[in-house]
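## retry 2 of 3
previous attempt timed out at serialization; input unchanged, resubmitting
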Amino acid sequence: MFLNVFSRKVEQPNENIPVDRQEPKAAGPKIGLALGGGAARGWAHIGVLRTLEKAGIRPDVIAGTSMGALAGGAWAANRLDQLEEFANSLTKRRMFGFMDWRIGGNGLISGGRLAKLLELNFGESLIEDLPVKYAAIATELSSGHEIWLTRGNLIQAMRASYALPGIFTPIKIGGRWLADGALVNPIPVSAARALGARVVIAVNLHSDVFGKGTVIQDSGPAIEPEEAPLPAPATKPRNLFGNVFGLPRLRVQTPSDGPRGISAVMMDAFNITQDRISRSRLAGDPPDVMISPRLGGIGLFEFYRAEDSIKAGEEAAERALADIAEALATLSA
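## retry succeeded, writing output
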């Protein structure tokens, strides 16, 4: 299925044209995109890129984390049409078909099936050959270093950037074991600036999820009037992994007043972590324009809801066009 979508021959850049810019552009500030991570919500990047293209806004620099690295790499390699077709073709059943489960090891999914299809269709595309500057953000597991993959095999760089710990197997590049870049830099504004962008447009996929989190300074057990004890409710099976990837339901006995299933707890923890890290990084290096798709109703692994995510990305980008125009005009003066 994925192969059918990405079956057309990869266009190679003209060797006689400098790889850093194959099409001359009018003078103006270099535009950078910082595409954030967010698992299934990352399909929103497709809508953002489409809207920017229609408005005549083409980036000179793309820095992406996780799904941002995938979408940004597809755009840079002129494969966004095919990626969108693939995203819209996904269903729960098709998603399950791409998951090569493994027991033990360092990830629930090896990622080999997806990687093979990407490699067959992108070929041996090199980051150096892309018509724009590109960086995929990853995390070195042994040291916690933030790694900017700016050269070498494009597919390997994207795989390392979206290798969510515990879900996908880490990727070894240049002697380093790398995992999801969202662990250290969920929205890589800093990378886009370092690569030469004068105007940075960031896409935050988590602003509609935990964007208003705060600190509760005084909390403890509630004091309630004593009442006659009620019969203890019978425990019932709770869904363990059923809401991740749309998998068959595996149930365990848990108290009815306890936390949600393990998959929901994992996803909530990931959402909270990404929100806090994003806000911290953005406070130190804010973008010139922020695009914030409304994705709170889309789960991290609901990849089959690409149409909703892409539409949310389009709408958010349209809302930001006036701010982008103002930023470009100001920095062009």
